[in-house]
Amino acid sequence: MWIHCSRKHSTSTTTNHNQIVDGPPITIPLTVTDADFDYVLFDIIEIPSNGILVGDSTLPNNTPTSSQIKYEGRSVGLDSFTYTATDGRDGHITTGTVLIDVQSITDTGSGIVDTFDNGLGFWSIIEDLQVPPDTHDYDTWMIVSGTDFDGREGNVVRSRDCDAPCVMTFNEIDISNFEKPRLKFDRWLDSSLDDDRPPNDWVKVEVYDGTTWNQIVLWDSEDTDFDGNWHTEVYDVTAWINDDFSVRFTAQENGNSEDVVMDNFSIYDLSTPSTITDLTASVDFSSSVNLSWSIPFNGGSEISGYDVQRQTNSGSFVTIQNNHGDSTTNSYTDSTVSDDTLYTYRIQAKNSEGSGDYSNNSIVTVPLGPRAPSIQTINNLTISADDSYSQSIFVSDENGDSLTFSVSGPDFVTISKISDIQATLFVNPQP
User: Fold this and answer.
1) Which of 114, 202, 220, 392 has its CB surrounded by the most CB atoms within 10 Å?
2) Domain match, 129 and 216 both
3) Which tops the pLDDT comparison, 36 or 137?
4) Is the residue at 219 inside a domain?
5) pLDDT, average across residues 298-324
């Protein structure tokens, strides 16, 4: 940000910064120009409300016309602070306002993800450093729609025509508790980047270990990676575990309308898959049990299958399916069940790192299957032709169904329903 101090006027200027909530403090530079080349003094006159400034309200100078202060975000939302700069002359004072967008970061349980759909809130941008400056308004990293790049949904971040390097740096994060950290992102490099016109086109990715920047990959004009297609990159960054970890992308494109595009940036700890928490079991016509679940976070390595365990009544869990399905699977059908039985199920996802923890237990009772009614046995009867006979008949039905009664035989034998469990048999051989 530039604030101009002169004998004739002062100018109020606003600049934007971004911060992760509860993340490490960011350093905000304060720079002015003074027409008289005087030593400029800085002072804070309005403090932020969603965070704190680390340091004195009277700011020490780095140079005669620059200072800096650290800001630490404490709650999500837009924040700001105001400062003044003066060269000590009467009327030579100007006011600057700094806006900070304090944002949260998507937490997968094992890392962070930025799809750029919410802007560049977690990044610091250095534009094209060409001298004299280029007149294009896109010589920087900026958010654009992904539709122009193979129809990708949502936003992407693009660098275009940076004749001098354009730099995009992720805000520092703490990965000191990670065991196997991985850096992952999608990249799209314009096929026109390999035109070999000096200075050469190149794209560089570096990671910060708390002290120095370390290059992990460089694409330049000699590579075949400039093909105008999307590629997913994954890098092991275990060697740079620290509590001030960062990543930066630097791009230089020497031609017109040459694009370097990034999407789906993530830093995660390679691990076994996350625990499934929504396993559901349901009965299908008393002959099978259907299991369903949401696909868990894969731990950074594709899910290779699921182990399914079943407990019958109060017995022990037994594995009934080993390595079922693949990375897209979210259901299983158990057709080896018996009716009138209580079952408890649990599953675990597997990847190259091993098996995740078992899911929640899901309990289901397979109901009794269809049963034929049981009818009272009637022994042989002897009835004279001029006599009649009646007898109550009792029926049991395990399914509790509504029953109908019928009898086959001579016309003088009939049956009458009393209830679903009782009927009366009539025998009347008289004409």
Assistant:
1) 114
2) yes
3) 36
4) yes
5) 94
